[in-house]
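Shipment paperwork, digital attachment
Item: protein structure file
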Amino acid sequence: MQIGNISFAPQPVFLAPMEDVTDIGFRLLCKRFGASMVYTEFVSAEALVRSVKSTINKLTIRDEERPVGIQIYGRDIEAMVEAARIVEEVHPDIIDLNFGCPVKKVAGKGAGAGMLRNIPLMLDITREVVKAVKVPVTVKTRLGWDKENIIIGQLAEQLQDCGISALTIHGRTRSQMYTGEADWTMIGEVKRNPRIHIPIIGNGDITSPEEAKRAFDDYGVDAVMVGRATFGRPWIFKEIRTFLDGGQPDPAMDFSWKLDVLIEQLRINVERIDEYRGILHTRRHLAASPIFKGIPNFRSTRIAILRAEHMDELLTILEEVRSQLG
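Attachment content:
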């Protein structure tokens, strides 16, 4: 598969862009474990144009995480074009346009998935951004606003006509948010459309190596994108890659090995930000990590993990869990 000048090995697996999740430390871990491409947290075009410091900081990328995409969102043509030009200056491999975020503070204001209610504007933004930059432009969107308005078939063709280099489809409507099951049938129909010649990337409910393989085998997508299943589990890319390549699970990836990865992620965040905020930034992953599921009487320990405010305190709790299971 190829996006612009970027070539990927067969059946690539991407890390989805996610707010407060895909910071540079997490991206580098996912890349180490086999992510074929990673994306930054999504970036507000208007905040970028206004030079908001916290937004500018999201543009920091490193060569060792390439290929890397920077995703922007907004509802104003001029702001999106200017933001794309600003983003291009930091030399990402891809600029991705977010027309899929369903959260109220984004979609409710007409950006993200809110664009599914204003297709002409979505297409105008896409067309103008493609013209404004030289880096490949891609789009991530959903099936439609709700089940009565499934428009992805026609929309995929329209976006392709705007000049995008690839399309990522999340197999839910905006109304579904993240509930129910992703409809991969619709993604497969877009991929099989003889008029579609750009790569189609499938997203939604890829939580295991088996589901990733099914996406490739049954729906023919060019790549899959993994989102929420990476929380507290950056090694999922190694698990998927090994399975897709016909290998066997690595016995070295036991509880202790995975705990070391999470501790490394914690240290990276503390060093990158500061102790208090670094711990806060890692809590989402510690709370969601599957390695703690099934541990007897773990509730009080989980609460202690999520309440810890100092590095030494949190490390002590985690090492106690390790010793109990060892």
